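ok trying again, last paste got cut off:
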Amino acid sequence: QVQLVESGGGLVQAGGSLRLSCLASGLTFSRYAMGWFRQAPGKEREFVSGIARNSGSTNYGDSVKGRFTISRDNAKNTIYLQMDSLKPEDTAVYYCAADWSPTSPIRVVTTIDEYNYWGQGTQVTVSS
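nice, full thing came through this time. structure:
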């Protein structure tokens, strides 16, 4: 049974930082491209960041470029999202997702429909 469990969310003031983690189990983690998405109330889920299997390729949504950094530790079956210079508009539920990518170690996935597994999400609230 595949499980993705996010942690690290919380309440932070604008300009602050948070580090999200996503622990994966029940899958061969090194065979999956991974990503972070977020969904604010009344809005569609949007792409935040993605990372390839080998960590060599990453991608970011325009609204977080230069402020967020994605990384992964295949030995720990975990991905991270370091979020700096947080803004009130970053307030959302953040989800991690896994995409089965057995043939391409450098593939980064940015679209929701391509991901196979999702976590339950962690709330991030940024106060002004």
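cool. The two ends are 40 Å apart (CA to CA). DSSP finds no helices and eleven strands in the chain.
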